[in-house]
Amino acid sequence: MWKGMNHMNLTRAAGAGTDKSGDVLVWAEPGGSPVQIEVESSVADLFGGAILAAVQETAAACGVTAGRIRIQDKGALDYVIRARVETALRRSGGEA
Q1: What parts of the chain have a pLDDT lower than 70?
Q2: Residue numbers of the domain that contains 42
Q3: Is residue 49 part of a domain?
């Protein structure tokens, strides 16, 4: 996770991940404030709250205060979700 980053603007649509079992597909794009997060998951009944929290925490740690993040989860573990979200945000913010 980025240390010391205060704010990142999402400037273009970008994604990370796959739609394979055990992975997550993440899209990040410019949008309004506050950040809008949509979660679609095959395990939403059990882990929807944890998935949403992981996305919110990752976005906050990256300094994202506006935009839209869409998650299509296929049973990914927490660290995979966080890594995919960070990658999508970096790409959307022009960092990668």
Answers
A1: 1-6, 96
A2: 14-92
A3: yes
